[in-house]
Amino acid sequence: MFTFLLIVQTLIAASLVTVILMQRSEGGGLGVGGSSSGFMTARGAADFLTRATGVLGGAFIILSMVLAAIAGTTTGPAKIDTSLVKQQTVPTGPAPALGERPIPPAETGGSVNRNQAAAGQLPAAGNAQAPAVPVQ
After folding, report:
1. Are the CB atoms for 19 and 46 separated by under 8 Å?
2. Is residue 80 included in any domain, yes or no?
């Protein structure tokens, strides 16, 4: 339904542009010239184009409001395309509390509780020596 109304809106917009450009302005504009003995007189054509401009302009405004209302009330399930998302591994340990930094496994060298990590008492990783604690 929305797509159909959008196509109708596009056709009305194109018609409106055409009708406006066909009208004669003070300087002549892009108005269609011709003899007055044609299908319509110059006065009749001007009245028709003026009336057509008003009708098409009104239809354009009303259809714009209808399309905005339809777009605002459409409630469908959100479609999220996950085909471009890289697969990420999620750590299985407990999540750090708010304000704490997570402790990477390579930094700990084994199991360390959060109290030791917060106090700066991390054991040495691998064969490296633990940093010396300055004495005061």
Report:
1. no
2. no
Q: What pLDDT is attached to residue 36?
A: 47
Q: What confidence tier does 132 reach under pLDDT thresholds 50, 70, 90? A: low
DSSP assignment of 20-48: HHHS--TT-TTPPP--TTSSS-HHHHHHH
Domains in the chain: how many in total? 1
The 3-state secondary structure of 70-124, one letter per residue: HHHHCCCCCCCCCCCCCCCCCCCCCCCCCCCCCCCHHHHCCCCCHHHHHCCCCCC
Token pair recorded at residue 92? 């299985």
Has residue 53 been placed in a domain?
yes
- pLDDT of 135 over the 50 cut: yes
Domain extent at residue 13: 2-27+39-73
Please state, in angstroms and rounded to a whole number, the distance separating the CA atoms of residues 71 and 75: 9
pTM over 0.85, yes/no = no
Whether residue 112 is contained in a domain is answered as no
Who contacts 83 (Cβ-Cβ below 8 Å, separation ≥6)?
none
CA distance 133 to 136: 9
